[in-house]
Amino acid sequence: MKNFRLQRSGPYLVMAPGIILLLLFSIYPFLFLLKISFQEYSPISLDKPFVGFDNYVRLFSEHHFWNALKITAIFVSSSVILEFALGLGLAVVLNQLGWGQRLYQSAMLLPIAMAPTVVGLMFRFMMNEQYGVLNYFVESLGFSRTAWLSDPVLALPALIFTDVWQWTPFMMIILLAGLKGIPDEPYEAAMIDGASAWQTFIYVTIPQLSRIITIALLLRTIDAFRIYDTIYMMTKGGPINTTSTLSWMVYDNGFKFLEFGYGAAVCVVLLIIIVSLLTFVLKKVDVFEMGGKK
């Protein structure tokens, strides 16, 4: 009887540490965040009155929020699409290499081994208007110096370029693993049918990679929404809020102006946007894989 009880309780005992950590570092912080989003919460005030949906009403009525939402959408869509396209291209090229593949692969993975703060600081120096190395090449081509990070038109593209440089290898390594997992039989059948290289890529490689592509895109999309370190080191949300994303808005209001309740409301809205987007994408992928039948 004792062994039977131990056998039944064994799985729960094994899962207990993980469940406790999940409660402490995930569920409780989320519930606390949700709670203070309905309060006028400030660490410098003992009075934390319940204000209902006032923080959310203020959020949706501010131009700054809609601007941050637009900047976030542009940044996430541009960086993820570029990283996917470049990562897929690099993965295909590396998959065709024989000798030296691991050497090239290791060299290309160096950017993701660097902390985002280090990458942001490095590109901040490289894009400096006075002594940046990028302006050295611009001048050598006969053009005038460019204020990459202080120009409202160029600041966001510079931020996207930095993110693409660092995270394209992440896409590449996931897609390369997917390519290596594709069996030879579909390619042999396509060759027998006389399919060209492009037709084989579109009708054999891409469908075989569909789930890997979905995973890579979802992981990078979630991470792109959370960008903060690079913005802090490069632009600090400027110039004129042209690089102020929703994640930067959380920092700006929560830690700069100490409006924790308002910052928590931004976090909740950002979470809803991410979950809704991911749910929509996963549903579309499932429908596509089932031939449109749900």
From TrEMBL:
Intracellular or extracellular location(s): Cell membrane
Keyword terms: Cell membrane, Membrane, Transmembrane, Transmembrane helix, Transport
Descriptive protein name: ABC transporter permease
InterPro entries given in the database record: MetI-like, MetI-like_sf
PROSITE patterns: ABC_TM1 (PS50928)
Transmembrane segments: 12-34, 71-94, 106-127, 154-179, 200-219, 260-282
Primary location class: membrane
Membrane topology listed for this record: Multi-pass membrane protein
Taxonomic superkingdom: Bacteria
PANTHER family, A to Z: BLR7065 PROTEIN, SPERMIDINE_PUTRESCINE TRANSPORT SYSTEM PERMEASE PROTEIN
Domain ABC transmembrane type-1: 69-283
One of the GO BP terms on file: transmembrane transport
Single GO cellular component term: plasma membrane
Entry similarity comment: Belongs to the binding-protein-dependent transport system permease family.
CDD domains in the cross-refs: TM_PBP2
One Pfam family cited in the UniProt record for this chain: BPD_transp_1
